[in-house]
Amino acid sequence: MKSLISAGLLLASGAAFAAPSASLLDEAQQRGTLSVCTTGDYKPYTFLREDGDYEGIDIALAESLARSLGVEVQWVPTTWKTLMPDFLAGKCDMAVGGVSISLERQKRAFFSDPITVDGKIPFVRCDDVDKYQTIAQLNQPSVRLIEPPGGTNEAFVHRELPKAQLELYHDNTVIFRHVAENKADVMITDASEALYQQRNYPTLCAVNPDKPLQYSEKAFLLPRDDSAFKAYVDQWLHLSKATGEYQRIADTWLAKPAQ
């Protein structure tokens, strides 16, 4: 009986001090790389240049995170439509590039702490700002919407603006030109993107960027149930904001141009 009790105590002790499950935090450092999915079509967060290099707020942040781990970033191209399937299939360790936090995504993955607060707004020709202030004004059969497929912009339109005409356009880098050229009336997008793009399209205006139609937050998409890696990313993000690194990166893209 005594030996049985001793064996039971050993088993219990072994269970209590079992080695933790493997974490990406350790795996990435061991292999020397951090693979990161990004779409490359969403300024100011991610953009694939003609020379094959990526740039943007989240690109710089991901590179900073990798440096803190002592590893290199391995970029993995994806699209908004295939972002979650690619991520869940294990094609990358994390995903960045203006990824909006949503409950649907949260069901299948973790998010880092929010990087920034954002929200959906209309992006229209400046002459039409007064016409597209509210959901009621936008949700009309005469309104021509244009959106990239597969992301939260399309989901918002299907949910909130079902009566409007919707065109899905696959090239998110030039989609704004269609509104400027009167081939569409409105693009629903995040305030941050509209504020950035109106610098490139002076005839287009962000409608009420301080009062979005839908509250939104952006974060890094992380593997579900990997608490050690999430804790590290969150702490790194906290320190990058506390030291001013995040603000310096964001200002490179979002600061108002000199008059």
From TrEMBL:
Pfam families assigned: SBP_bac_3 (PF00497)
Domain Solute-binding protein family 3/N-terminal: 33-257
Xref: SUPFAM superfamilies: Periplasmic binding protein-like II
Domain of life: Bacteria
Keywords, alphabetical: Signal
Signal peptide (residue range): 1-18
TM stretches of this protein: none
Keyword Signal among UniProt keywords: yes
Family label: Belongs to the bacterial solute-binding protein 3 family.
UniProt-recorded name of the protein: Transporter substrate-binding domain-containing protein
Organism, as annotated: Stutzerimonas azotifigens
